[in-house]
Write a structure and sequence with these properties.
The structure is a single chain. The chain contains nine helices and six strands. It is an alpha+beta fold. The chain has two domains: 114 residues, Beta Polymerase, domain 2 (2-Layer Sandwich); 123 residues, Four Helix Bundle (Hemerythrin (Met), subunit A) (Up-down Bundle). Strands 3-4-5-2-1-6 form a six-stranded mixed β-sheet. The longest helix has 26 residues. The chain is elongated and about 65 Å long. The mean pLDDT is 92.
């Protein structure tokens, strides 16, 4: 194992004791660094639960109370999107994520590397711990919604810059970049991911070079447009190749309409 913070080990042991006593909890497992043995002094703790379908509503409402049973007092908590759970920060800045998954939608292969703390019936993780693949490439697949969202956000650049919403436009560069990353993962056939702060191993050297070369963006419209042009060309190049490779249709009508929309308003090509 790595050299993490012993205070997280205390929380892990507390989870082993707490959740088997709660009939609503069917399994408890770790993802991220503490699951794969890569923890260091910068790691946080990512704890996930599988719960009965009937109890998921309760966990959606009370996840932060459960988190505090593990971590002790918190100075900050925040729900993570639409998930039944969120993050907590303790007074000494330990960072704990707690997420509950309903049994009906549980996917044991969702994350890259799992350390099982508790499996009530031994059926949710029949093989026990799941070693991380560390971004090991698989079969390329077609991420239809990713490509569509890329061009949706690119097309919205006309609106935000038309309103001189430079901050929103700058934020949008990051959104399109993140979709490009997801497209790159599909190129490599990477489906299982680990912690959000460990991306390097999931990408090839060429992909990382492309991402690191995205033009820097502040709030100058010229810089924002240049960054979006760069991203758009990468999505076009990679997306068309991946669609052909996987035998899936390229959304030509939507893409062409978006490219024409951008060119009409900004007077520069995006392809």
């Amino acid at each position: 194992m790595g050299s993490g913070d012993e205070r997280y080990d205390v929380m892990i042991q507390r989870a082993r004791e707490l959740f088997p006593a709660d009939d609503r909890v069917l399994a408890c497992y770790l993802i991220g660094s503490y699951a794969t043995g890569a923890e260091d002094r910068f790691s946080d703790l990512d704890l996930h639960l599988v719960v009965t379908d009937a109890s998921i509503g309760w966990f959606e409402q009370h996840w932060d109370d459960v988190l505090r049973e593990l971590s002790g007092p918190t100075v900050f908590t925040e729900r993570l999107g639409t998930l039944a759970g969120g993050l907590g920060i303790t007074p000494d800045w330990l960072h704990v994520d707690l997420i509950a998954h309903p049994l009906a939608s549980f996917d044991r292969f969702q994350y890259d590397g799992v350390r099982v703390l508790f499996d009530r019936d031994g059926t949710l993780f029949p093989d026990g711990d799941q070693p991380a693949q560390h971004g090991r490439p698989g079969t390329p697949y077609w991420p239809e919604s990713v490509v569509q969202m890329c061009f949706y956000f690119l097309g919205n650049l006309v609106t935000v810059l038309g309103r001189d919403e430079r901050i929103a436009a700058s934020q949008g560069v990051g959104v399109v970049r993140d979709q490009l990353i997801r497209l790159m993962l599909a190129e490599r056939g990477v489906r299982r991911t680990g912690g959000a702060k460990r991306l390097n191993a999931l990408l090839s050297a060429e992909q990382r070079t492309v991402l690191e070369a995205i033009p820097p963006t502040g709030t100058d419209p010229t810089d924002i447009i240049a960054a979006n042009q760069y991203l758009c060309r990468e999505v076009l190049r990679r997306g068309k190749a991946l669609a052909e490779q996987t035998g899936e249709p390229w959304p030509a009508d939507f893409v062409n309409a978006t490219l024409a929309h951008l060119h009409q308003h900004f007077g520069v090509p995006f392809n």
